[in-house]
Write a structure and sequence with these properties.
Length: 116
């Protein structure tokens, strides 16, 4: 049996197909909100300073889960060097130009669960 508790260190990449002068997180709350959902990570916030065009937001995070690997022989036969097992999770969302209003848009991205 494997139990996974993830601590995620996120990297947020924001790309726009349009020309924008100053893309930034929208005040007053400039930091996005990160929610650890167990095997996935969700980030949400709002962007300002966008130009005309579609926006793609990509989230990549490295997780260092606590995993307990036990040999099938039973008991507490935990093989050394198997814990933790680092993994990377990623997700993306596309925001069409029609949803960008006056250079602003809210966003939410959830990563896919890691492959075991």
């Amino acid at each position: 049996m494997r139990k996974v508790v993830a601590i995620l260190i996120p990297m947020l990449a924001i790309g726009a197909t349009a020309y924008a002068a100053n893309v930034h997180l929208k005040p007053p709350k400039k930091d996005p909100t990160f929610i650890d959902q167990g095997l996935t990570l969700k980030v949400s916030g709002a962007l300002a300073g966008l130009g005309n065009g579609d926006v793609v937001i990509t989230l990549v995070a490295t997780a260092e889960p606590e995993a307990v690997c036990i040999n099938p022989g039973g008991g507490s036969h935990e093989p050394p060097g198997q814990n933790p097992a680092e993994t990377t999770v990623a997700g993306a969302t596309a925001i069409p130009e029609s949803e960008v209003k006056n250079g602003n848009t809210p966003f939410a991205v959830t990563t896919d669960a890691p492959v075991t």
